[in-house]
Request: fold
Amino acid sequence: MQVPVMNKSGKQVETIDLPADIFEVEINKGLMHQAYVRQMANARLGTHNTLDRGEVNLTKAKWYRQKGTGRARHGAQSAPIFVGGGVAHGPHPRKYTKAMPKKMRRQAIRSALSALLRDEQLVFVDSLSVDTPKTKEMRSILELLAGTESKTLVLLADRNDNVQRSVNNLPNARTLRASYLNIRDLHQYDKVVVPLDALEVIKSIWGRE
Reply:
């Protein structure tokens, strides 16, 4: 498939052919959803913890005598029904990680890229650079490329401090290294700006093995 390539002024300067094995695969919503759930689950720390009645720092002595008080029988003040007592069936540290075969993960990324291309959410630019970190200049560039109201993700081939600092100062834009491409970020933004050097990284990583 041929797509236009823009310059920083928003004008088309050339057209390029995109590899069909990355940008024209069958769009599998179920696979993308599975990859998204896996990514979000694997990001959870699972460090939540509550104390049960055997772990709270209270005496385990019987609170009051068994009979004659007119109250219910209780063995300890650490019971869950009392303020300051333990928590019944509360959460404890656990792992939320989910497994997914590598081929399925790779196909989910290809499916996401194909969906973005189909919906005209990918914007290809010949190069994206600024001499010094200038948020105002970068805002103007992104408005020409992606529109004024769009949440924009800018892919980078390598570390570029000037571009990163300029983009990340904007409330509706952020940068991401092309080698860190993931299903969550691809679906989180309205437009994805792809410089040609970042496109080469995508081809090298996500092309057919």
User: Anything to note?
Assistant: The chain has two domains: 2-44+96-206, 47-95. The CA atoms of residues 164 and 175 lie 6 Å apart.
